[in-house]
Amino acid sequence: MPKLLSGAFNTIIERSVKEKTNQDWKITNIIENQNGAMHDAALFQGNHHYNVFVKAGTNPFSHDQFLQEAWGLEFIRKHSAVKTPQIIDVVKEESTILLIMEAIPVRPVITKQEWGVLGSGLATLHKSTWDKCGLETHSYLGIFRQDNTPKNTWAEFFGERRLGDSMKMAVDSGKLPGREQESVERLIHKLPELCDPTQPFSLLHGDPWVGNLLFDGTQLVLIDCSIYYGNREIDLSTVDFFCDVPSYFFDAYNECYPIAPGYLDRKDLWKINQWLGHVYLFGEKYLEALMKAVNKYL
C-alpha cells in the first residue's frame, strides 16, 4: 500500500491545511489517484467541504521539482486569466516530499462546447507573452530538468535548451547512435530557416496533454505544468501527442487566438524533443519515430 493511503502523512497534511485555511480541518477519507501519474498521489477529503490533492516524491530532485511546479502554477495564475489549483504547501517528511494543493472538483469533457472551453482556455494562456524565450528559473518535464535560460530567438532556444540538451542525454546514455546524432545536429543548425521568426513568445504550459487540462464545469484548470515562454505551437503539438483530441478543441483555440499558417507542416518538428526524451527513457524502439521526424526537415 502506498504510504499516502496508509495515513502516515495525515498529521502533517492536516497541519499544513489548518495553517493555510485557518480552519480546524480533519481528514475524513483518502482516495488513491489512478490516472497514471509519475508520483504517488491521492485525494484527501476533509470536513468544512474542503479537499486537497497530494503528490508524494522520493527522488533526490523531488523537493526542487515540487517547488518549481508550485511556483509555475502560481505564475500562471498571476500572469494570465487561466485557473490553477491554490498551493497549500511543499513539505518534507523523512525521505518523502509532499506537494499539497487545493483539490479542484472536475468533470469529464464530453460535449463539443466543453472541448471548446479547453481549447479557448489554452489560447488564453498563450496570449500572455514576453520578449524572450525561456524563463527566470528552470522547470521539470517528468524527470527531466529543463534549462530555461532566456534566448532572443526561438531557433536558439529550441535548438540549444531543448533539442541540444535532450540529444546529449540520449547520447550519453548510449541510446542515440552516432549517425542519428549527426542528423539531429544538422537539424539544429537548420532551425533558423525552419522556425517562424515572427511568432510572439507565449507563456507555455510545457506539457499540455489532455490529462493536464482539467474541466471544472465552467473553465479550464491547468495542472502539472512545466512553464516557460516560447513558440505556442510546441504546446499545440503536445495536446494530441499521446491520444486523439476532437477538432472542436483546435477550432475553439483558433477562434480565440488564430494559429499561424503552416502549423501542420511544422507540427512534427516540435515533436522531436519528445521523441528524443522517449529514446533516452526507452531506447531504440523510438529511434524510427525520431528519425522519421528529423529527416522530414533535413
Structural summary, described in words:
By secondary structure, this protein is of the alpha+beta class. The chain is built from eleven helices and twelve strands. Strand 10 (213-215) and strand 11 (220-222) form a beta hairpin. The protein is globular and about 60 Å long. It starts with a helix and ends with a helix. The relative contact order is 0.13. The mean pLDDT is 95.
Please write out the topology.
Blueprint: H1 3-6, H2 10-21, E1 27-32, E2 40-46, E3 51-57, H3 62-79, E4 87-93, E5 96-102, H4 112-126, E6 129-130, E7 139-141, E8 144-146, H5 154-172, H6 178-194, E9 201-204, E10 213-215, E11 220-222, E12 228-230, H7 233-239, H8 247-256, H9 263-270, H10 272-282, H11 287-296
Antiparallel strand pairs: 1-2, 2-3, 3-5, 4-5, 6-9, 7-8, 9-12, 10-11
Helix pairs in contact: 4-8, 5-6, 5-10, 6-11, 7-9, 10-11
Order of secondary-structure elements: HHEEEHEEHEEEHHEEEEHHHHH
How many domain units? 2
Task: Tell me the strand order in the biggest sheet.
Answer: 1-2-3-5-4
Percentage of residues in strands: 15-25%
**Which geometry do the CA atoms define?**
globular
CATH architecture of the largest domain: Alpha-Beta Complex
CATH topology of the largest domain: Aminoglycoside 3'-phosphotransferase, Chain: A, domain 2
The biggest beta sheet reads: 5 strands, antiparallel
The level of helicity is 40-55%
Low-pLDDT segments, ≥5 res: none
CA radius of gyration is: 20 Å
